[in-house]
Known about the structure:
Blueprint: E1 6-10, E2 19-24, E3 27-34, E4 37-42, E5 56-58, E6 62-64, E7 71-73, E8 79-81, E9 90-91, E10 93-96, E11 99-102
Antiparallel strand pairs: 1-11, 2-3, 3-4, 4-9, 5-6, 6-7, 7-8, 10-11
Amino acid sequence: MDDGWIKVGNLADVEEDDTHSVEIDGKRVCIYNLGGEVFATDGTCTHGDADLSLGMVVDSCLIECPLHEGTFDIRSGRAVGAPCTEALRCHPVKVEQGFIFLRPVS
Ligand code: FES
């Protein structure tokens, strides 16, 4: 039965306070490991066409865009630093037996 969860990688591939990019249905998604807790957001900045997996995790909860240094809260997707104003879409994730599963939100 298809319950909507897609296996997107190994937890071991996503270092703590780092980002990991995967492509789902042609769209870039960013996976984060914040102190062992996994999150996922759209991988493209809402301000421009920047790959957030090339950005930096700051304060253990924000992703800083590599292009204009706008920031988003990884846990909620909320835009928290200019010039970003539009939130990132977040996707549910779970970890089972060391594998990361994601249920894409459209
Ligand atoms: Fe991300 Fe401008 S493209 S802050």
